[in-house]
Amino acid sequence: MASDQVNIKRLAQELNISIATVSKALNDSYEISAKTKNRVWDLAKALNYTPNPAASNLRSHKTKTIAVIIPDVANNFFSLAIKGIEEVARIHGYHVLIYQTHEDTEMEISFTNSLLNGRVDGILTSVSSNEYNNDYYRDLVKKVPLVFFDRVYESLQTFKITTDDYESSFAATQHLLDCGCKKIAFLFGLEKLPAGRARFSGYQDALKANEIDFDEQLILHYENLEEQNVDNIEQLFQQHHPDGIFSSIEEFIIPTYLACRNMSLSIPQDVKVLSFSNLSSAKLLNPALTTITQPAFDIGHEAAKCLFKILNNKGFDDEQNIVLKSTLIKRTSTNC
Amino acid sequence: MASDQVNIKRLAQELNISIATVSKALNDSYEISAKTKNRVWDLAKALNYTPNPAASNLRSHKTKTIAVIIPDVANNFFSLAIKGIEEVARIHGYHVLIYQTHEDTEMEISFTNSLLNGRVDGILTSVSSNEYNNDYYRDLVKKVPLVFFDRVYESLQTFKITTDDYESSFAATQHLLDCGCKKIAFLFGLEKLPAGRARFSGYQDALKANEIDFDEQLILHYENLEEQNVDNIEQLFQQHHPDGIFSSIEEFIIPTYLACRNMSLSIPQDVKVLSFSNLSSAKLLNPALTTITQPAFDIGHEAAKCLFKILNNKGFDDEQNIVLKSTLIKRTSTNC
DNA sequence: AATCGTAACATTAACGTTTATGTTACATAA
DNA sequence: TTATGTAACATAAACGTTAATGTTACGATT
């Protein structure tokens, strides 16, 4: 585009040395004398040389690129996680590719497969909720360095970064019970995934620990349409009169508040509400919402660090589960 | 990793034809007979062949990759924009690289420069707020297909996707005036960028149109610390008693609500508040917040479409400004 | 029948690196 | 002295594509 592209051949010609020497000098090889290295470095800087990534990748099988595969970018949790990932990648001089699956396992697999031809050095993924597809990943982890975060598959030979879903869910349920709730509805999301099931178990076990019978009727499953969720929640109230709402995913918050508003139920007087959430404005809601907040940024940070650990050690038959703690932030919506 | 890598050489051997024929068949060249193409395609599918991106890129100078450079991923506006970009990219079979500048122009330029060696086919960018650096981009747009969105530099020979900042700002100010406000404070962000200045002008001109004197004292500049902003807003109230707040960036919302809460000012009785924002929970705030909402997803969508227009036409000395409309959503925070 | 055009392939040279394998010159060891 | 080791470079072969150029066979044209 500008004048002739500057590559190592050009540098070699100008310095009257071989291109191999230039390459090794640029890579700071021990084979090259300090004097020659400096000549190369100086000229490279003067001519504003940057190596061609395609050529380098083709030859060395290193791409300096990782991929992040997630359900949705426009989500408080995932955008924070990406932020964490991106920071670690930048420190390592790596590039970050983003793919959105829209909770569609088929698309997830399609994206993943498109990365197996050497486009990336590794993959960070948070799996889709619409299906549980352990088999695919069982093979995949053998083919490419892969780290799961938050939404993981179990018993796979790789790194998994999660949060203490069970414990935080138990604690949150206990908090509702402590506030006097007797009939706590559970708004169920991520049902097919370990994360969702752990949250559900925490809820169930907290009830059991307090000798409260589990009531199937108080479980509401997530639908993709916001209005549908509002309707469902209203129906739940009309039929079963819960005095507490435990929302296991952020997507239920707006429907819950809208339903309460529609039915003139006041939070927390008539019903106490809490939810898993990374909503920064939770404290400004009407009323301020009690949340179980996952350390989204840290999860991304940690996941990326694990991936680079694999990339540096080569041996990616390592397995490790890292569990970070979520925080229960008590606010007005669960005031006693 | 698995068995021998499957490449076109392997396909050629198995089919007993030349690698050139395989390559052309895979690319559906007119030179190859239908029969041969089918043999190649069938075997390629059978062996699960996917072309090596590095080799293809090295030879053809096409990367099937675009870069998105933005200040921050964990931001409602930008994450929605990315979502729009990613969708268009997927339709075109392109990959998307993400870079965060953290509002730092130096990092922005560093990222951008690292992409000029053929790593991407084009760049989408929303520039940092900490500096106005037209010069750099004046050269850049000649070197690489580039599309600006939302935060643009003016008078550059390329595509720019923006929103009607001036008009929506004017309308929002008019709305506050219509609700009876006499002293409207302006919370100023993006001051160095055309977007921020247009919002400010819209505010000023609306005042002028209503024969209200502009008061420098009612302007508050954004600080990076949330608490600092809270303090500043409280001070603003104590010293100048505004009856309306026009926040030109989303980041002022929480500080504004907190300041009002701290000072026991009730919205909208004591002061009416509105803000530029893509906060999905705006309607659930206490009180529900009137917003000027930018079509973030559409902006990303449109920006990506423009970039692909450039990539397909080759001629990227085209210039075009596309202006999308923001929406003023009136809610309780500006009730009369 | 000789010529030409062209469909359908093959040969081969890139693209810009990295790296395995030479090749020197010179210091050191035997 | 000769052999040996090694520092510091050069040569050349990959990596897996694409594309410019060659080749062949065969039907159409004159």
How would you characterize the overall build of this protein?
2 copies of one chain form a homodimer. The first copy, chain A, is α/β, with parallel strands linked by helices and 336 residues long. Chain A folds into 3 domains: 8-51, no CATH class; 65-163 and 296-326, Rossmann fold; 165-293 and 328-334, Response regulator (Rossmann fold), CATH 3.40.50. Chain A has 12 helices and 12 strands. In chain A, the strands form 2 sheets. Chain A has a 6-stranded parallel sheet, with helices on both faces. In chain A, α1 crosses α2 (19-26). The radius of gyration of chain A is 26 Å and the shape is elongated. The mean pLDDT of chain A is 94. The interface between A and B is large, with 52 and 52 residues. Chain A binds a DNA duplex (30 and 30 nucleotides) through residues 5, 7-9, 17-21, 23-24, 27, 30-33, 36, 51-52, 54-61.
